[in-house]
């Protein structure tokens, strides 16, 4: 676009052909092509007075302080998000332990129990003396486990054995989730 404008404005004359144009008549005005781009001032380049433009220490400290404050706010939100995700993952693991126990009881046609260990933060699925599965919720998600009962058993038909519901609370930081296992074995 710039080349087309220059070509049009030059009118087939050469600015270096002397004072005589193609017509042989003296020229009264010499044509000079416009500059292709204006001069720009580059940051940090010396000015005409010789003083370099820069950033003061106060300005630099203000920017670093703002970055620190914004980083602290974002980090607090990130920790809350990480706590919620860990608790949800632990809840899914605990539900998987109860589901594994129920399915194992039906397929093995023998009672299978889930034992909750709040000290180690894990759920152990076992049938008689055999350990079928271990779900390490505390070690995997760094959760605290609390429950109203220490175990839940399923009979050979997949129904829960016992007289009361089991409530397990998984917590980390400010986040907490509750898993309730009904007396008949249904997990909610």
Structure, described:
With 188 residues, this protein is an alpha+beta fold. Helix content is 35%, strand content 22%. It contains 3 helices and 8 strands. It is elongated. The two termini are 70 Å apart. The model has no long low-confidence stretch (mean pLDDT 83).
Largest sheet: 5 strands, antiparallel
- Count of extended strands: 8
| Main sheet strand line-up | 3-2-1-5-6
Q: Mean pLDDT, nearest integer?
A: 83
Q: How far is the first residue's CA from the last residue's CA? A: 70 Å
Structural class: alpha+beta
User: Helicity level, as a percent range?
Assistant: 25-40%
Radius of gyration, taken over Cα atoms and rounded to an integer in Å: 40 Å
**Contiguous helical run count:** 3
Overall geometry comes to elongated
Low-confidence stretches: none
Give the strand content. Answer: 15-25%
Give me the strand/helix succession: HHEEEHEEEEE
């Amino acid at each position: 676009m710039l080349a087309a404008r220059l070509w049009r404005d030059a009118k087939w004359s050469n600015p270096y052909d002397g004072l005589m144009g193609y017509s042989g008549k003296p020229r009264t005005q010499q044509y000079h092509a416009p500059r292709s781009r204006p001069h720009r001032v580059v940051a940090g380049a010396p000015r005409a007075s010789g003083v370099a433009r820069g950033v003061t220490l106060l300005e630099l400290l203000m920017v670093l302080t703002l970055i620190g404050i914004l980083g602290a706010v974002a980090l607090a939100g990130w920790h809350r998000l990480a706590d919620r995700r860990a608790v949800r993952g632990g809840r899914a693991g605990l539900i998987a332990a109860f589901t594994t126990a129920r399915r194992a009881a039906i397929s093995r046609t023998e009672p299978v129990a889930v034992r909750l260990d709040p000290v180690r933060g894990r759920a152990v699925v076992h049938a008689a003396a055999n350990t079928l599965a271990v779900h390490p919720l505390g070690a995997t998600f760094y959760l605290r486990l609390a429950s109203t009962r220490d175990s839940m058993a399923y009979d050979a038909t997949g129904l829960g054995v016992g007289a009361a519901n089991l409530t397990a609370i998984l917590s980390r930081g400010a986040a907490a989730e509750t898993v309730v296992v009904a007396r008949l074995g249904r997990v909610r």
